[in-house]
Design goal:
Elements: H1 3-34, H2 36-59, H3 63-91, E1 99-102, H4 103-120, E2 123-129, E3 132-137, H5 139-156, E4 161-170, E5 175-182, H6 189-192, H7 216-226, E6 230-236, E7 240-253
Parallel strand pairs: 2-4
Antiparallel strand pairs: 1-3, 3-7, 4-5, 5-7, 6-7
Helix pairs in contact: 1-5, 2-3, 2-4, 3-4, 4-5, 5-7
The structure holds adenosine-5'-triphosphate and magnesium ion.
Length: about 270
């Protein structure tokens, strides 16, 4: 290959890299859009709590009622701030930088954004955290992958169901694993090999004109591979689907499942 061709190839590679980063960012903003309705509802509920407890505190002058009102207003304020912080950090354009990250707190930041959406679609959320694995990741990209899986899971449970999020450290294989399991429609065997291909989708645009681009899983696979990780799927048509994200393990902090330690029996004071 001539020097000129080499230079042209390098230029094209740089362009592809830049366009992929743009696509990832565009898809991220679109996925936040999916949550706009539920987050607006949630803010409305929070504001109703603030307004009602403020009124109650003004009507009742006794200290106990006022303390309770302030507590409720404060808790509502904290919840609102958790959601806005989550939204801002999620939507922020993050440099391609990796940090050792606790996979459970990464997940919790995503769950705070989707809780209301799941509730509105009659989906019960269950978390099963076995360990607290650490992995060297670009947290924002992994959150985007998790959000894509959760949105897919919710869309697969049209009449409601259960979403189970699991976390474990697979020390034999050296991976921290996040599993997103649903009790939805499942994926027919002949489609399983298609779902990670760009633009493969069985969905149509929703009422808000969103979804169905078929890019969610293609980007998920790309992000996982760039992290030296994997994405795996198992599905039983009519019963549900489980996606597992495997990320190279960088350590495990203390186990999450606390072993019940019997309380010491107090010795009676004579
Ligand atoms: N949890 C799931 N249950 C059932 N089918 C699924 C699930 N996740 C993905 N699929 C199938 O895989 C296809 C591709 O998913 P992907 O997320 O890539 O695209 P999409 O959801 O159709 O569109 P987009 O994510 O761009 O809005 C879906 O159209 C659906 O047929
Ligand atoms: Mg999708």
């Amino acid at each position: 290959m001539s020097d000129q061709q080499d230079a042209r190839l390098a230029e094209l590679e740089a362009q592809v890299h830049a366009l992929k980063a743009e696509l990832l960012q565009a898809q991220k903003v679109a996925s936040v859009g999916m949550l706009a309705t539920s987050i607006t509802h949630e803010f409305n509920n929070i504001l109703m709590t603030v307004i009602n407890y403020a009124k109650m505190g003004m009507r009742h002058k006794d200290a106990a009622t006022r303390d309770k009102s302030f507590d409720k207003i404060l808790a509502a304020g904290h919840r609102a701030s958790k959601i806005t912080t989550g939204m801002l950090s999620y939507a922020k354009r993050q440099a391609d930088r990796r940090e050792t990250t606790d996979l459970i707190s990464l997940l919790d930041d995503v769950l705070v954004l989707v809780e209301k959406d799941l509730q509105m679609h009659r989906v019960r959320l269950e978390t099963r955290y076995e360990h607290r694995p650490l992995s060297n990741v670009n947290a924002s990209q992994i959150q985007q992958v998790v959000l894509n899986l959760i949105v897919n899971a919710r869309q697969a449970m049209a009449t409601g169901g259960t979403l189970i999020i699991g976390v474990r450290a697979n020390t034999e294989e050296g991976f921290g694993e996040i599993t997103v399991r649903d009790t939805g429609c499942g994926i027919p065997a002949e489609q399983l090999k298609e779902i990670f291909k760009p633009y493969f989708s069985t969905k149509t645009l929703d009422a808000q004109g969103q979804g169905g681009t078929g890019l969610g899983l293609a980007l998920a696979r790309e992000v996982m591979e760039s992290h030296g990780g994997r994405i795996r799927v198992e599905s039983a048509p009519g019963r549900g689907t489980a996606f597992t994200l495997k990320l190279p393990l960088a350590g495990v902090t203390q186990p999450v499942v606390s072993v019940a330690v019997p309380l010491p029996i107090p010795t009676p004071v004579a």
